[in-house]
Amino acid sequence: MNLRQGVVCFPVLCLAAGLAANPADAQTRVGEAAVVQNEVVRVAASASTQINVGDGLLRDEVVRTGLASAARLVMADNTNLSLGPGATVKLDRTVFNDEHSYREIAVRLTTGAFRFVTGNSEKTAYKITTPLASVGVRGTILDILSQQGKTTVVLQEGGSTVCTLSNQCIQLTQPGDTAIITSSGGRTTIQKTNNSPWTFAATCGAAAGLCTVTQFADATPPADDPTGMLCGR
After folding, report:
1. Are 140 and 115 in contact (CB under 8 A)?
2. The model's pTM
3. N or C terminus: which one in the chain shows less Cβ crowding within 10 Å?
4. Of 39-48, 67-76, 124-133, which gets the smallest average pLDDT?
5. Mean pLDDT, range 50-55, rounded to an integer
6. Which of 26-35, 124-133, 170-179 has the lowest mean pLDDT?
7. What 3-state DSSP class applies to 17?
8. What SS3 state is found at 107?
9. φ and ψ at 60, to 5 degrees?
């Protein structure tokens, strides 16, 4: 039997109750929602559920913001990812190196405006993709706009290598350096400019704290409850 907060239950029943109350406990929590403005949902098959501040994020999860909505997600390695209105991101793959860093973290920015601030992981761990580009980072703050037939990547801090899917690459080394990838008629081009027509700064006012950088809140269960599924939790 397990005893907690005056509740007595058998292990099997306790486990089942915990899973029913919070199915995410049985999966890998890779981050959490730090800022949620209006409609921010996790999408699974044809269903979607609202995400609230403090909710955990799971591996392979798709997060989408509605119109007039925004969110900031904080990963376990303190990576901060801000999403503007009408954005969709998939947390493709995460492989933990230790409790506070990843050996690999893959994020797919499907559509919308984003600000990506790297965390504690080695820079080679990050794999950022859009439908048209792959983006490598070096201690980086990046603004990324993914649109149909076009991806814009603006360097705010650090460095970045931006490549097309056919491995045409350019280096972003100075703040303001911008890679613009376009695809039309089966032809993809990439060009570099230092006079970007867009940055995420225009989106920062969509929600309080959207462009703030914060740390991941330690959500580790207590030592006597490693699964987080004791009765009463």
Report:
1. no
2. 0.81
3. N
4. 39-48
5. 96
6. 26-35
7. helix
8. strand
9. 70, 15
Torsional sign, CA 217, 223, 227, 233: negative
Element (H, E) at 180: strand 178-184
If pLDDT is split at 50, 70 and 90, which confidence band does 103 have?
A: confident
150: its two tokens: 């076009």
Contacts of 220 (CB under 8 A, 6+ apart): 99
The residue among 91, 218, 94, 78 whose CA lies nearest residue 228 is 218
Alpha helices, DSSP H, located in 88-197: none
Amino acid code (one letter) for 221: P
CA 229 – CA 62 distance, rounded (Å): 25
3-state secondary structure of 49: strand
Classify residue 29 by burial, with Cβ atoms within 10 Å: 0-12, 13-18, 19+.
middle
Q: Which residues pair with 172 in a beta bridge?
A: 160
